[in-house]
Amino acid sequence: MNVRRRRISGIAVTAATALGLGALSACSSDSSAAGNTDKFDVVASFYPMEYLAEQIGGDHVNVTTLTEPGQEPHDLELSAKQTAQMGEADAVLYLKSLQPAVDEAIGQSDVKTKIDAASLTKLEDHGNVEHDHGGEEHADEHAEEEHAEGGEHALDPHVWLDPVKYAEIAEGVAKSFEKADPDHADDYRKNAEALAKKLGGLDTAFKNGLAKTDTKVFFTNHAAFGYLAERYGLTQEAINGLDPESEPSPARIKELQQEAKADGVTTVFYETLVSDKTAKTLAKDAGLKTDVLDPLEGITDKSKGEDYVGVMESNLKALETALGAK
Q1: Which of 92, 192, 278, 295 can pair with 174 through a Cys bridge, CB separation 3.0 to 4.6 Å?
Q2: For residues 161 and 224, what is the distance between their CA atoms, to the nearest angstrom?
Q3: What is the rounded distance in angstroms from the CA atom of residue 97 to the CA atom of residue 157?
Q4: pLDDT value, residue 1
C-alpha cells in the first residue's frame, strides 16, 4: 500500500511489537476473548471495524480487536496467540491491504466467516493526491513501493472516512452477520438500519456544513482523507503521502507556502496517533494554524469524541473553521 508504508529500524519494530503485544496478550487472556463465549464472537482488525461489529451486533456479539487503542494500525504485528484465537472466532472483520500482518493471518486461518470490508464498497486510487512531494529520495521510494505492490498505485484503503461508503460496508457486514448467525438476523438488520440513519445524518451534516466555504483546499499530514474530500468537493494536499512522520523537503515547504497563499489555506492538520512535528514545521514556516483532523484509526483519551460519530463531528467542525464555512 503506497498510502502509508513506513521504513523503521529493526530495533524500533521489535520494541514496538514487544510493547504492543504485551498489552494485547494480557487482554486476550480474559474470559471474553474470541471463541470463549456463548455469543457470536467477532475479531475486528482495528477500530472502524470494531465499531461496525458492535453497532450491528449489539447484545448478540462479543467483539475483540487486534489493534489496541493508541496503536498505529498500519504497522501491527500479531502474536501466535492472537493468530490462534482468530481461528476460534465465529467471524473476522477486516479491511484488506491496510494491515499486511492481518491479511496474512486471515489467509492462513480456518475461521468460517471472513468479512473483507474492502470488498463491500468500491476502493479508489487517490495516489495522484500524494505525489512524490518529498524530492528525489521520496520519489525513488515511491517508485519502489509501487513496484512492490505490482501496480502504478495501490488503492486507498481509508474508506471509513466517507460516511456513505462506510454505510455501504455496514450493510454488507450486517448481511454477513445475518447469514452466519441466522437466529439473530432480525436484530442485526434493525441495528444496521439504525446505524445507516446515524451515518446518513453525518453525511447530511458534512454536505450542509461544507457547501459554502472560503476555500476548498486543506493540508494534512498524510493522505488519509481522499474519500472524504471527493465526497464533499474538497481538495486534500498531503505533506507526506508515504511517511506522516518524516520532514518535508525545503522545496515541498516552499510549494505548500505558495499554495496556501493562492488557495486561502489557513490550517495544517495533524492526527492523534502520529507526531505533530511535520505539521508544526510547515505551519511555522508558512504562518498557518494547526489543528487535528482525526483519521479515526483508533480511539484514545486524546480523541475529540467517544466514538466514530463523535470524532467525525469534531472533524467536521475543524474543517468548517479551517475552510471558512458560511
Answers
A1: 192
A2: 8
A3: 7
A4: 34
Residue 272: CB atoms within 10 A of its CB come to 20
The crossing angle, in degrees rounded to 10, of helices 100-108 and 80-88 is 50
pLDDT for residue 24: 36
pTM assigned to the model: 0.81
| Distance, C-alpha 96 to centroid of its chain | 12
Residue entry with cell 494547526: 290
Which residues touch 98 (CB under 8 Å, ≥6 apart)? 1, 45, 46, 73, 74, 157
Cβ distance 162 to 224 under 8 Å? no
- Strand positions, DSSP E, 159-272: 217-220, 235-238, 267-270
User: CA 77, CA 14: separation in Å to the nearest integer?
Assistant: 10
What per-residue confidence (pLDDT) applies to 262?
A: 94
Q: Got the DSSP string for 218-235?
A: EEESSS--HHHHHHTT-E
Are the C-beta atoms of 248 and 130 separated by less than 8 Å? no
User: Which residues touch 228 (CB under 8 Å, ≥6 apart)?
Assistant: 161, 162, 206, 234, 236
Which segments in the chain show pLDDT lower than 50? 1-32, 128-152, 242
Structure letter (DSSP) for residue 8? -
Q: What is the pLDDT of residue 82?
A: 85
Per residue in 78-96, pLDDT tens? Answer: 988 888 888 899 999 999 9
Cα separation, 225 vs 221, whole angstroms: 10
Q: Which residue has the cell 457470536?
A: 40
**pLDDT tens, 198-236?**
999 999 999 999 999 999 999 998 889 999 999 999 999
Measured CA to CA, the distance from residue 96 to residue 103 in angstroms comes to 6
Q: Provide the pLDDT for residue 71.
A: 85
Give, as one character, the DSSP assignment of residue 183: G
Q: How buried is residue 74: exposed, middle or buried, by Cβ count under 10 Å (0-12/13-18/19+)?
A: buried
Count, residues in the chain: 326
